[in-house]
Hints:
By secondary structure, this protein is mainly alpha-helical. It has 14 helices and no strands. The protein has helices at 3-19, 54-62, 71-82, 87-102, 106-120, 123-138, 146-163, 168-182, 186-199, 204-216, 220-233, 237-249, 253-266, 270-284. The longest helix has 18 residues, at 146-163. It is globular and about 60 Å long.
Amino acid sequence: MKVKQIVAAGAIVALMGYLYTLPPKGLKPKDNESGHSNGVVAGRPSCPVKQVSVEAVSASAKAVIAPSLTTKIASLEDQLSKTPEGEAKFDVKRKLAQQWDDVNQPAPAAFYYLDLARHDNKFEDWLNAGNRFNDAYKFTQDTNVQPAYIANAVEAFEHATKLKPTNLDAKTGLGVAYVNGGAPSPMQGIGLLLDVVKQDPNNHSANLNLGQFAMKSGQYDKAVARFKSIIAQKPDVEAYFYLAESYKQLGMKKEAIAAYKKCKEMMPDPAFGERIDQFIKELQD
């Protein structure tokens, strides 16, 4: 199995492990005609944005991957430190961004893509930076770094949407960043995501995130509909996992077990399979 697949499986389990310990991030389950929250919880706490360095997040990322995978990264970091300012230095930063992508560590990759985007103002670099910052936010519980990830994601996606106003990937990413705390009201983000789905009803990322946000606001029936629509287009392990969790919260044990089993079939990793078996056993007891 590829490294990316193994890390992705672990990320899904880790995410779901703390999903229900988080507050609903400003959303409350009051439906409107679109089937999503129609209001926000007043007084969303604001966290100051701390300076977060690429060196700090790189050190944290190295701690969770195999030492053998850090060899090339360390070599490139050493090369970067010795390269004078100029285009050659940005070439090394691009290699570092791609190398961190190869080991599925979005936080350090995000900072390198952000440097590249600020330098060249290219749409793809802004989009890559924003997507990586959104992923970094999703996969960390460190409240010290989360505000920086959100702020940087908003910067990246707002630049991307200026360069390509009709691009749905950029609009989706900005919507997610807004819901995560990058806008005064998370409904600004939900509005963007709903607009993406209106233009492209089968948009995987927008539907997946709308489903996740529905879960966080306790709207599990709406979440089920989102994840089922994704699976109808192209089944994937993440959609099945969230579908299983939503069914579980609705008390639909039979359906949850069936969805968990699909997860196990699609991600044949022993550690992932053992965790899925535990979820199934809990429902059968």
